[in-house]
């Protein structure tokens, strides 16, 4: 009877493992960063140093933004004529227009904050749920 119980437990663990593996194969990475890496073309020539990693699409910034946000809801977003700025817990996804299509920049919030603060200001919800400094007198000090 004991061997049968261990056999059933082993089969159950194997089935769960197979389901997790299948999900990972079909749905890719489990983050906005992974989604961009899996669905857009890498464009290393458009990287900003080693901090902002670039991808491209032949779709407009609004189309790319909709595709990403339909899958991964951002904590905050800001949209203006210069592009679409999406803030997630640890990452930013910035979508800027090209002559044809868009460039999608992936960057950690710690370096995205100083780079894009002049554009998004307080409209991006800096500091709420993120690890960057800010938020008022004495905050993060």
Strand content: 15-25%
Report, as a whole number of angstroms, the end-to-end distance. 62 Å
SSE order, as H and E? HHEEHEEEEH
Q: Which overall shape is indicated by the principal axes computed on the Cα atoms?
A: elongated
Q: What is Rg?
A: 20 Å
Number of strands: 6
Main structural class: alpha+beta
Helix content: 40-55%
Q: Note the main sheet.
A: 6 strands, antiparallel
Poorly predicted segments? 127-141
Give a nutshell description of this structure:
The protein has 141 residues and is of the alpha+beta class. The chain contains four helices and six strands, in the order ααββαββββα. It starts with a helix and ends in a 21-residue tail after the last helix.
Task: Write the SSE topology.
Blueprint: H1 2-27, H2 32-39, E1 41-42, E2 53-57, H3 61-71, E3 76-80, E4 83-87, E5 91-97, E6 102-108, H4 109-120
From the structure above, extract its key features.
141 residues, alpha+beta, disordered C terminus, 6-stranded antiparallel β-sheet, elongated, single chain
Can you tell me about this structure?
With 141 residues, this protein is α+β, with helices and mostly antiparallel strands. The chain has helices at 2-27, 32-39, 61-71, 109-120, and strands at 41-42, 53-57, 76-80, 83-87, 91-97, 102-108. A six-stranded antiparallel β-sheet has the order 1-2-6-5-4-3. A hairpin with a 2-residue loop joins strand 3 and strand 4 (83-87). The model is unreliable at 127-141 (pLDDT under 50).
């Amino acid at each position: 009877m004991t061997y049968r119980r261990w056999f059933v437990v082993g089969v159950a663990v194997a089935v769960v493992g197979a389901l997790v593996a299948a999900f990972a194969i079909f749905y890719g990475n489990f983050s906005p960063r992974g989604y961009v890496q899996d669905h857009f073309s890498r464009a290393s020539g458009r990287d900003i140093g080693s901090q902002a990693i670039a991808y491209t699409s032949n779709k407009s910034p609004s189309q790319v933004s909709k595709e990403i946000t339909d899958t991964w809801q951002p904590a905050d977003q800001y949209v203006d004529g210069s592009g679409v700025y999406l803030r997630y817990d640890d990452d930013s996804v910035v979508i800027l227009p090209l002559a044809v299509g868009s460039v999608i920049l992936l960057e950690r919030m710690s370096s995205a904050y100083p780079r894009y603060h002049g554009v998004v200001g307080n409209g991006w919800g800096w500091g709420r749920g993120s690890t960057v400094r800010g938020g008022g007198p004495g905050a993060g000090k």
